[in-house]
Amino acid sequence: MISVVVPTFNEEQSLEPLHQELDRAFAALGPVEFLFVDDGSRDRTWAVIQALSKRDSRVRAIRFRRNFGKAAALSAGFRAVHGDVVFTMDADLQDDPSEITRFLEKLDQGFDVVSGWKQVRHDPWHKVWPSRVFNAAVSTLTGCRLHDHNCGFKAYRRQALEEIDVYGELHRFVPVLAHARGYRVGELPVHHRPRRHGHSKYGLSRLFKGFLDLLTVRFLTGYGQRPLHPLGLLGLFLTTLGLSGLTYLAFLWVRGLGPIGTRPMLGYSAAAIVVGVQLICLGILAELITSYHIRSHPPYSVAEEINIPSSRHAAPTAQSPVSPPDDPEARHG
Question: With CB atoms 3.0 to 4.6 Å apart as the test, which of 16, 80, 97, 104 could cross-link to 21 if both were Cys?
Answer without folding.
Answer: 97
